[in-house]
Amino acid sequence: MPNPKIDPHLLRIALLLPTVELGAYWKPVIRELAKISDRVILYTGRPWPGFDPRHPDSEHVQIVGETIRITKNEQKTDYSGGYMRLSPKIISRLLKFKPHAIVTSGFSMWTMLALLFKPLGGWRVVLAWEGSAPNVDFRNSKLRLLSRRIVASFADTFITNSNGGKSYLTECLGVDPAQIQVRPYLIPDPQTLLGLSDADSIDLGRSQSPIFLYVGRIEERKGLHRLLAACTNLRQQGYQFSLLIIGRGPQQAELQTYCDDHHLGDCVRWIGWVDYHQLGAYFRQADVFVFPSLEDTWGMVALEAMALGKPVLSSKWAGVSELITDGENGWICDPHHPDDLAMVMQKAIEQPELISSMGTAAQAAISAHTPTAVARFLADVSLKTLT
Length: 387
Fold this sequence. Notes:
Elements: E1 13-16, H1 26-36, E2 40-44, E3 61-63, E4 68-70, E5 83-85, H2 90-97, E6 101-105, H3 109-116, H4 118-121, E7 124-129, H5 134-137, H6 142-154, E8 157-160, H7 163-171, E9 180-182, H8 190-194, E10 211-215, H9 224-236, E11 242-246, H10 252-261, E12 268-272, H11 279-285, E13 288-291, H12 300-307, E14 312-315, E15 330-333, H13 338-350, H14 353-366, H15 371-384
Parallel strand pairs: 1-2, 1-6, 2-3, 6-7, 7-8, 8-9, 10-11, 10-13, 11-12, 13-14, 14-15
Antiparallel strand pairs: 4-5
Helix pairs in contact: 1-15, 9-13, 12-14
């Protein structure tokens, strides 16, 4: 039985995150968590780009095998209904480390192994559920839901970014609401995002203001095709603006052809892939960030825009929309209807004086969600599982 009076500085916490490939934002959280207790290890099978085990930031990170995503369609992503193949060596690592608490992401094999070996290891398990989305929830799969209910029944507590995530856990998996803590734990760090970037170092040519910015995968789920349809609508009405598109993906060629066919070449600029530490320069140059996702459990990139003082035009189908107050620090719309999306963009074009004040409000809305706050939250949740 774990000691409920354990000193926080002696607390051993293991974070099981199968992939942090796009999770450089975890680095400052781990750094802050290590200030609370230096007995913290993040285990993953797919680290962020440029990961160097010799770097001081990697002291509390261990690579266990290789995370391989298995899907029926190679162009699909983690919303495709596939699964991750993970190394079972995680158990030997955990038994050697002997954590008091394990914070594990979702319903992966590592989560199931952590729960299976819980009696032997004597640890407690905190199940982190990012949020709710149709192709992640599997609400129509009785077998998948049954397996998740069984797994959830053995977890000690749950954390989730959004109320949508809490609703899924309670309504679909039967989790006791008292076991769930709702608080954003996936948050950006402006310093990491800005890196060495210099807003004056990027050349946007003669981009027409206001500048809308899209950052993300170029695939159907992300709703970029809806955004481009809204841009077509606005241009047909004679509105002048610019849209910067950062990212890559399977739909890129198709959408570039769409832009050519609809004469959007003078207002849409395809930037391509940008390293995480250089993204800040583009955020600072933009006026409004657009997040038209058709489904998204959370939406880290929208939070990054808010952290850098940009209002967000967010899809109602993204978990992050819970942090946006329509008309105050951004706008909320349904991207399934490009005309509605165009109407909201029109407001930003016609009332540019609102952009600055809304950006300030957006930054204030996320100001309390820092790497330090997340580290304290994870440590507090871990400690509470021991009582």
